[in-house]
Amino acid sequence: MRFPCMLCAPFLLLACSTKPPPTSESCTAQSGLSRMAPMTVEAWEFEVGPGGQPTLQGLPIVGMDAAPFRFGGIEYPGQWAFVAAGRRCGTPSPPAAVMRQVEREMRAFRAAPGAEAFVAEGFAVVVPVWFHIITCGGQGDVSAAVIQEQMRVLNAAFGDTGVSFSLAGVNRRENGSWYGMGYGSREEREAKAALGKDPRRNLNVYIANPPGNLLGWATFPWNLSADPARDGVVLLNSALPGGSAPYNLGATGVHEVGHWLGLYHTFEGGCSEPNDEVEDTPPEAGPRHGCPGQTDSCPLPGEDNIENYMSYVNDACMNLFTPGQVIRLRRMITLFRTDLGAANRFGASRAYLPSVR
Length: 357
Fold this sequence. Notes:
Shape: globular
CATH architecture of the domain at 96-263 and 321-340: 3-Layer(aba) Sandwich
Oligomer: single chain
Strand order of the largest sheet: 8-7-9-11-10
């Protein structure tokens, strides 16, 4: 017997829907790919620079190989093609004007009496984490064991930074549209508005199936005041611990939380300064992939920091944040995410930094 929707209790609302339940095929179609048949990425999906070298955002993809690469049912000519097609991380570089304003704020912070001492020894912040697991037709659910392992990986990776993470809760929501949300999409905004927990005091992690096998993205801390509803991290469900190799150890979550705490990619800006605004991460010509050997891709001093969590290498090869990155993320928390941890006398930044869309 089917009751009128106006009489349904909240927990029966799904049964009242006039739409048929989503199928596996309709869920994968919503995210722009099908696991029923392999799909080959065409050459036009990535840029080719001088000499035929693939590029991402104008930067060369360093250390490419010819071995075919498959991820999430899609076949690429090589892992370099996966990276060059923008599949690794969807967090964009902020506009130049925003980056300059952020650095002005950072310089003002460093000049404040006692500020640098505050972010030195003894800095400690515990970040409550909410996981919002979005499913479609039964696809995409994530077990409690996987969530616990992702939490363990986060705490191990950030263990020397003074930042730790505590599981605040897990939400599960069936929604076919949100399941395939893309970066900056209406579906992303709707999901975050409906599911997010106070972004000033929590890290919200949304687990879904973004289009094109994008592994994830994050908002930067300076976007919080301008657009709090959009704050958080989005992760591909198969890029969690136990997911699809070589992105199956939880390092994508570490990488995106690094952005959420204010860190850029180590190859930001290529070989030109100021790169990623961190002194002890030498400049890199472009993103690395796989598990390459140690190289020096820029004429400026220092070898490529390929084992850094903010690089593009495989999960198994990511294992460090530099001391400079640690200080930077502590400054970012102190300036832009002050409600995360203990109160401090420096307060939040008063600068208005427009949301990066």
